[in-house]
Design brief:
single chain, 359 residues, mainly alpha, Serine Threonine Protein Phosphatase 5, Tetratricopeptide repeat, 3 domains, globular, Ankyrin_rpt-contain_sf, Ankyrin_rpt
Length: 359
């Protein structure tokens, strides 16, 4: 049987298994010789980049185990390593470099990131503070918007928990759960991401219930809380521990289930479809999908840059698409660089689009 037989839509068994969410079949089909279709590579590269953006390691591993080339770029021209760097997902950066065949030797974005990251990881702040037995108080300003949560939580061994415990004992005036790094992640956030249950237990034992309950729902700059991360990364032991101790509401449970692998893929498939149609200037098909309520104007359908279909239409100068989106009440929102669709149109001198968006 030919596992790489292509249907009239250009798909094959492996493609269909993944996009129809039969993830358990993907690795099996790959082991039997199935490969992702070459004409779908940009689509799968986009999904990989989105899962990197979402920090969903299980989904990333699935695509890697099925032979997806991480060097390939999506329609934005980005590959997975770039997205990991842009989001400061250092564990994913190291995963791609150490576990895959990704190329980066001449990539200044990546080499600069690795150089800066190496300098920050060699920072001896935590060891110095713990070894310093004097009673000098540490300035709390050191912690604000800094890598402190990372330094306190970067290793997964028992000695790490010992260091944190000693640090707390030596500096009782410093409430370590109040501080966040540059990505608005607390020490609890990082402990969840790195699957450090013992650190989570330690924090629960040493800080009040109300503080920890609030901390578990505190979102980082991408809108994810520690509990979100526990569910998305399938750290179910931590997820259940948090849930049993502090979060027993059914509404909260359903909220986090909506961030599952399946729901994320469904979301990004719609984003890819919408973006592809906009780039191809498929006005009639976009209109048809709005009429069928496949697309709704209250959703942004933004990519990992935060760029909406309106951004893409403005970038590519597709006036009729912009006009259609305006008719459907599709509102402009800024991307992650705080740029609006009208900014893109102005930069490219698409005056007709600028005038339409100014109305």
């Amino acid at each position: 049987m030919n596992v790489n037989f292509f249907d009239k839509f250009g798909g094959n068994a492996l493609f269909d298994a993944f996009v129809n969410e039969h993830f358990h079949l993907c690795e099996f089909l790959y082991s039997r010789g199935a490969r992702f279709p070459e004409n779908k590579q940009k689509e799968f590269s986009f999904y990989l980049n989105c899962f990197v953006n979402e920090n969903h390691f299980a989904a990333i591993q699935c695509l890697m185990k099925c032979g997806l080339n991480p060097n390939l770029s999506d329609f934005n021209g980005e590959n997975a390593l770039h997205v990991a760097v842009m989001n400061n997902h250092s564990h994913l950066v190291h995963y791609f470099i150490e576990e895959t065949k990704i190329s980066f030797a001449n990539d200044l974005l990546v080499t600069d990131y690795l150089s800066n990251n190496r300098k920050s990881q060699s920072n001896p702040h935590v060891d110095i503070l713990i070894e310093n037995k004097s009673n000098e108080k540490i300035s709390q300003s050191l912690f604000e918007g800094s890598p402190w949560p990372y330094f306190l939580c970067k290793d997964t061994n028992e000695n790490n928990l010992k260091k944190i415990s000693e640090f707390v004992q030596l500096n009782p005036h410093v409430n370590i759960i109040e501080y966040v790094d540059y990505d608005l992640r607390s020490i609890a956030h990082l402990a969840v991401v790195q699957n450090q249950l013992e650190i989570i237990r330690f924090l629960f034992q040493n800080y009040g219930t109300s503080q920890m309950k609030q901390l578990m729902s505190q979102e980082d700059r991408w809108g994810f809380s520690p509990l979100d991360e526990a569910y998305r990364l399938e750290h179910f032991e931590i997820y259940q521990f948090i849930q049993q101790n502090f979060l027993q509401s059914e509404n909260q449970i359903s909220k986090f289930q909506n961030r599952s692998w399946t729901s994320l893929l469904r979301k990004w498939k719609k984003v890819f479809l919408f973006s592809s149609l906009v780039i191809s200037n498929e006005v009639e098909q976009i209109d048809s999908l709005f009429q069928r309520a496949h697309f709704i104007s209250t959703e942004t359908y933004a990519d990992y840059y935060g760029r909406t279909p309106m951004h893409l239409a403005a970038i590519h100068g597709h006036f009729n698409v912009v006009k259609l989106l305006v008719q459907y009440g599709y509102h402009s929102t800024p991307d992650r660089f705080d740029r609006y669709p009208i900014d893109e149109a102005k930069q490219r001198n698409f005056q007709e689009i600028v005038q339409l968006l100014q109305k």
